[in-house]
């Protein structure tokens, strides 16, 4: 497996809102390929950490050169595991595709923490990709996965910002509680 | 709000999601970690599990859980454990 993507960026929103936006991020105008999201497991552990497993159903998209016989089913299931620790104000999420794994598996991990400036949140993201397809197509598939991933990551951030803006507007209207976070030292 | 994989479960999901979102922002993030919405979750989850079984996704889920525990402690390091998936 190759780690191919590492990225760090910041949201101009308090950490609490970013973690709430993570739950609310589908549907959004930048994720029309997401068909359904379900919570499969959720509990607060002994340390007070909220642990969640969700299943996301996406419309698949294969490159034109990919042999159609191997993709009878274009639905892609993605499993998303996460933990939110309200004491340390850290949210860690990990997503990976459940089916089509022989063609390509992408595992993405993200870590959300309070930023250095007031009411900002940093997100560190990294992704790994592996194809076990063989037939001389492995590197081509991995390349496709990499270029596609970067474009999708950008769309995912736009989707999060869209939801964050909606949360901000709701808070201004008094329909959601306000959060205020001090920068981490 | 997003739909459920089971068209029949979407209504149960939305009831649960509404409850969770309120609990999450008004209680959990403010330090009260006592769970709420458990009954709504039980009904919603039971509905989803039926759909997953019909679609054959339940087996994929079981395999996926066997192979990779949540790697929260290894974030930022090389996730070498992930190489062992076959």
Explain the overall architecture.
The complex is a heterodimer of chains A (185) and B (86). Chain A is α+β, with helices and mostly antiparallel strands. In chain A, 24% of the residues lie in helices and 38% in strands. Chain A is built from two helices and seven strands, in the order E-H-E-E-E-E-E-E-H. Chain A has helices at 15-24, 138-172; strands at 2-11, 34-44, 50-59, 75-85, 90-97, 105-114, 121-130. A seven-stranded antiparallel sheet of chain A has the order 1-7-6-5-4-3-2. In chain A, helix 1 crosses helix 2. In chain B, 53% of the residues lie in helices and 0% in strands. With 86 residues, chain B is mainly alpha-helical. Chain B is built from three helices and no strands. In chain B, helix 1 (10-26) packs across helix 2. Chain B has helices spanning 10-26, 38-55, 57-67. Residues 71-86 of chain B have low confidence and may be disordered. The longest helix of chain B has 18 residues, at 38-55. The A-B interface holds A 1, 3, 16, 19-20, 23-24, 26-27, 34-40, 42-44, 48, 50-51, 55, 57, 77, 79, 81, 83-84, 86, 92, 94, 96, 98-99, 105, 107, 109, 111, 124, 126, 128, 176-177, 179 and B 1-5, 9, 13, 16, 20-21, 24-26, 28-31, 33-35, 41, 44-45, 48, 52, 57, 60-61, 64, 68, 70-72, 75-76, 78-79, 82-83, 85. Chain A: This is PRELI-like family-domain-containing protein. Chain A: Residues 2-172 form the PRELI/MSF1 domain. Chain A: One of its GO terms (cellular component) is mitochondrial intermembrane space. Chain A: InterPro entries: PRELI/MSF1_dom, Slowmo/Ups. Chain B: Keywords: Disulfide bond.
């Amino acid at each position: 497996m190759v780690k191919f993507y590492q990225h760090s960026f910041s949201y101009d929103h308090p950490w609490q809102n970013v973690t709430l936006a993570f739950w609310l991020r589908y549907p959004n105008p930048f994720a029309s390929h997401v068909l359904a999201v379900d919570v499969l497991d959720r509990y607060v552990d002994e340390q007070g950490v909220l642990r969640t497993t969700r299943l996301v159903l996406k419309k698949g998209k294969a490159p034109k050169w990919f042999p159609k016989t191997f993709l009878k089913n274009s639905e892609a299931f993605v499993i998303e595991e996460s933990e939110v620790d309200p004491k340390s104000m850290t949210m860690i999420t990990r997503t990976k595709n459940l089916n089509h794994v022989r063609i390509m598996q992408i595992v993405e991990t993200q870590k959300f923490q309070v930023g250095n400036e007031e009411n900002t949140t940093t997100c560190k993201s990294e992704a790994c990709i592996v194809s076990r397809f063989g037939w001389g197509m492995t590197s081509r598939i991995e390349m496709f996965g990499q270029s596609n991933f970067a474009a999708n990551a950008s769309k995912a951030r736009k989707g999060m910002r869209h939801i964050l803006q909606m949360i901000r507007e709701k808070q201004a209207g008094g329909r959601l509680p306000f959060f205020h976070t001090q920068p981490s030292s | 709000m997003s739909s459920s994989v089971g068209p029949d479960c979407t209504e149960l999901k939305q009831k649960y999601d509404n409850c969770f979102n309120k609990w999450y922002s008004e209680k959990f993030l403010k330090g009260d970690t006592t769970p709420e919405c458990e009954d709504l979750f039980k009904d919603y989850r039971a509905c989803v599990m039926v759909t997953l079984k019909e679609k054959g996704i339940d087996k994929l889920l079981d395999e996926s859980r066997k192979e990779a525990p949540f790697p929260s402690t290894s974030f930022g390091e090389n996730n070498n454990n992930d190489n062992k998936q076959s």
